[in-house]
Design goal:
With about 170 residues, this protein is an alpha+beta fold. Helices cover about 30% and strands about 30% of the residues.
Length: about 170
C-alpha cells in the first residue's frame, strides 16, 4: 500500500516449484530526471517509512556521485528456507531478473541493490561490478528491513553489457 508501483515502472519475478513459490524478487525503474539520488531517497523514504522527518542521516558520497539518471532497483529478494544456501541457483535466478529488467528498460544507466554486509560476498555472483559499504545511515529507529551496514551493489549498463556479451558471458 505504501508504494505506487505500476506495470510501466515495476515488476516481480517468482520462482515456482510444484505449484509453490520458492523465491521472489522485484525490480523498479526510476528516471531521476535531474534529481539527485540523495534527494530521491530522502523524499521517498519519508513516505515509505511513514516518517514526519527525514529518516536518513547520510548517504555515502560515492553513491551520491555515481547513481544518476535512469536507474533500476533490484530488491525484496526472498527465498523459502528450504532453498537457502544454494548460491548457483540463486545467481541464476538473479541473472534472469537482471536480464529481464535490462530488456524492459534498456536505457538504464545503473542497476543497483542493497545487501547486508554478510551477503556482499555474493555480489560478484549476482553480476554486480561495484560495491559501497555503509551506503545509507538511517536515523533511529532504523526502518524495518534496513540496516546501517547495508552495502550498495551496482553495475552500469556498460559493465552489464560487457559481462553479458559474447562467448565469455555470464553463465546462465
Amino acid at each position: 500500500n505504501r508504494n505506487d508501483f505500476t506495470r510501466r515502472d515495476a515488476f516481480w519475478l517468482f520462482l515456482v516449484r510444484d505449484g509453490k513459490p520458492i523465491a521472489g524478487t522485484a525490480a523498479r525503474y526510476t528516471d531521476l530526471a535531474g534529481e539527485s539520488f540523495d534527494s530521491f531517497l530522502r523524499r521517498t523514504s519519508r513516505e515509505q517509512y511513514q516518517r514526519e522527518t527525514d529518516p536518513i542521516v547520510s548517504v555515502a558520497p560515492p553513491v551520491m556521485e555515481r547513481l544518476k539518471g535512469r536507474l533500476i532497483y533490484l530488491g525484496e529478494l526472498e527465498l523459502h528456507p528450504s532453498h537457502r544456501g544454494k548460491a548457483r541457483k540463486l545467481f541464476r535466478f538473479a541473472h534472469v531478473m537482471m536480464g529481464m529488467a535490462a530488456l524492459k528498460w534498456p536505457e538504464f544507466e545503473m542497476m543497483y541493490a542493497f545487501v547486508p554486509k554478510q551477503h556482499v560476498k555474493l555480489a560478484d555472483g549476482y553480476g554486480f561490478t561495484w560495491k559501497v559499504p555503509r551506503a545509507i545511515t538511517w536515523a533511529d529507529p532504523v526502518p524495518l528491513g534496513r540496516l546501517n551496514d547495508h552495502w550498495l551493489v551496482a553495475t552500469s549498463r556498460v559493465d552489464f553489457e560487457q559481462a553479458w556479451a559474447g562467448p565469455n558471458s555470464m553463465d546462465l
